[in-house]
Structures are given as structure tokens and as C-alpha cells.
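FORM 12-B: Structure-to-Sequence Request
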């Protein structure tokens, strides 16, 4: 193995250990008597059933969901930034998350509220909504044959606004008591889903991230520009749409069940790129691992900050990501980008 391979293996190993550590930390923190001392006794017969239920049936599914969603949104952020060659790209900012959320809510509205945890139908509908948003985004943002950054952001904001309005209409039409639940979904909130949902999200996320990892070398070439990449033998259109479809798939798998958690795909890839460089062969898996840790920590903070009242995790990510996005946007304007 080359020195570079050993270095990357060490980085990914440390990030994986960091993710395992944040999961352990999140499992031991929360409202109720279950704590760190109980984690080592999880299989012991002397641990009371109530504490075991808190750890295994409430906290563990929620923590794993946060890790999967963080990994998915971070990986999707890397893909959109690479294909659009725009450091401000993020599934939430571009309106892809909004389209996925609208698809998921429309599926539940038509299939009945009992399908809110449908492990396959809801992500499939979310994927259709995400892809529709991508097509609209690319069609409206292309100006004189190239994608303008400002147009891209404006179209993304408009798509998000329309999708949010339609979601509120579908959820609250005829039943205003459901408004609070809709509001939490629009902000982004992580719960404790059935294990079938965890398995579904894990499968889709792993598949999408694997596809992006296989494309990573071509994404490196694409960073030099579409014309240069084409001269180097890259089928630009195929790479673009394969990456976009993979990113939309993992975005949809997450948004279908947690709603619009924003800015994860912006913050994490930038931090990982600054720390380890722009090579997508490392950037994709490293961002996924770091994104999992980031969202687990953010959700843990949301759970305990005002306990027993819980904040939607999207509030935490927006408070962190909003100023960060503004900083990047102003920096890009000053540089004439």
C-alpha cells in the first residue's frame, strides 16, 4: 500500500472511531435515568426493562438515524459541489431537499397517515420529488449555456418556498391541529423510527455513497472544467447525472423521514476539504463519516439543551449553517465569483 493509501486509511479510521465515540456519547446522554453506567450492562439480566427500553428502543434508533442522515446529506453536498463546481451547493439550499420532502408528504397524504413510516414507498416518492426539483433547477438556472451561481441559488430558494407552502397545505388542510408537526418537519426533526426504516435508509445511503465513491476519480477530473474533463476521456454528461441521481437518492432517503435538515451538506464538506484536501477519493467517505458525527452531536444538543423540551435538530444546524453560508456567499462575491 502506498504512503498516500496508508495516510487515507488512518484518516478514515480516526473518523470512524470519532463517529463510534459520538454514538456512545449520545446513547449515554438524555432525559431519564438511563446513563453511561447502563451502557456496559445492556445485556445484563440485572438491568431493568425500562432502562433497557430507553437505550435500545428510543435512543439507539434515533442516534443511528442521525448518523445516517448526517452521512447522507454530507455526501450529497460533496456531489453537488463537485458537479456544479459551486462551493455554495447543498441539497437544502438548492431546493432538492424541499422537493424530496414534498414527494414524501404527498405520498403520505394519498396513501394515508399510516404510511408515514413506509420504509420504501415514502423514500421512493421523496426521490421522485427530489429529481423533479433537480430537473427544474437545472432547466431554470442554465443561462447562455452555463449554470450561473446566483441564478442557481435564487431558483433553489424559490423551489424551497413553493415546496414548503405545498407541504403546509397538504398536511394542515382540514386539520389545523397538525400544524406543529408540519412545522417540525419543515425545520427538520429526528425521532425514533422503526428498525425497518433504519434498514431502508442505511441500504439506500450505502448504495448512494458507494456510487459516489466509485465516481470520485472522475469528479476530480470534472473539477478542472467540463471541457478539460471531456478531453481527458470523461463522459461528462454520464458522470454529472450519475452523481446527481446518487446524491438525490441519499437526500431523499433522509428527508423522507426527518424533514428539511439544512446546511449539513454545506458545513461538513467544507470543513473536511479544508482539513484533508480536495481529492474526492478521500473527500466522499471522510465527509460521510464526519457528517454522521456532526449530526449526532447536533441532535444530542437539541435533546438536552432545554430538557425536557426538545428542539428540532434543524434549528441547531440552521444556527450554525446560516452564518457560515452568508460568510461563503460574501466571500464569493468579493472574489467576483
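FORM 12-B RESPONSE
SEQUENCE OUT:
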Amino acid at each position: 500500500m502506498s504512503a498516500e493509501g496508508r495516510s487515507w486509511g488512518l484518516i478514515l479510521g480516526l473518523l470512524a472511531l470519532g463517529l463510534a465515540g459520538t454514538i456512545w456519547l449520545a446513547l449515554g446522554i438524555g432525559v431519564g435515568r438511563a446513563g453511561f453506567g447502563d451502557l456496559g450492562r445492556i445485556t445484563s439480566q440485572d438491568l431493568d426493562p425500562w432502562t433497557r427500553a430507553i437505550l435500545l428502543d428510543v435512543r439507539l434508533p434515533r442516534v443511528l438515524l442521525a448518523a445516517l442522515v448526517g452521512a447522507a446529506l454530507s455526501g450529497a453536498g460533496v456531489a453537488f459541489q463537485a458537479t456544479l463546481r459551486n462551493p455554495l451547493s447543498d441539497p437544502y439550499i438548492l431546493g432538492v431537499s424541499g422537493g424530496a420532502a414534498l414527494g414524501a408528504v404527498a405520498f403520505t397524504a394519498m396513501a394515508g397517515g399510516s404510511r408515514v413510516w413506509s420504509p420504501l414507498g415514502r423514500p421512493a416518492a421523496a426521490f421522485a420529488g427530489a429529481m423533479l426539483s433537480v430537473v427544474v433547477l437545472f432547466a431554470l438556472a442554465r443561462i447562455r449555456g452555463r449554470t450561473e451561481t446566483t441564478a442557481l441559488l435564487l431558483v433553489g430558494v424559490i423551489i424551497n418556498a413553493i415546496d414548503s407552502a405545498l407541504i403546509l397545505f397538504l398536511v394542515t388542510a382540514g386539520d389545523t391541529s397538525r400544524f406543529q408537526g408540519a412545522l417540525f418537519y419543515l425545520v427538520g426533526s429526528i425521532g425514533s423510527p422503526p428498525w425497518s426504516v433504519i434498514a431502508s435508509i442505511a441500504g439506500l445511503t450505502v448504495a448512494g455513497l458507494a456510487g459516489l465513491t466509485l465516481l470520485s476519480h472522475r469528479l476530480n477530473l470534472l473539477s478542472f472544467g467540463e471541457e478539460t474533463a471531456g478531453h481527458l476521456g470523461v463522459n461528462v454528461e454520464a458522470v454529472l447525472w450519475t452523481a446527481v441521481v446518487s446524491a438525490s437518492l441519499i437526500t431523499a432517503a433522509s428527508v423522507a423521514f426527518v424533514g428539511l435538515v439544512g446546511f449539513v451538506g454545506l458545513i461538513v464538506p467544507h470543513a473536511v476539504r479544508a482539513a484533508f484536501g480536495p481529492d474526492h477519493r478521500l473527500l466522499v467517505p471522510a465527509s460521510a463519516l464526519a457528517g454522521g458525527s456532526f449530526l449526532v452531536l447536533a441532535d444530542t444538543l437539541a435533546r438536552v439543551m432545554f430538557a425536557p423540551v426538545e428542539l428540532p435538530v434543524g434549528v441547531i444546524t440552521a444556527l450554525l449553517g446560516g452564518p457560515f453560508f452568508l460568510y461563503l456567499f460574501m466571500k464569493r462575491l468579493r472574489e467576483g465569483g
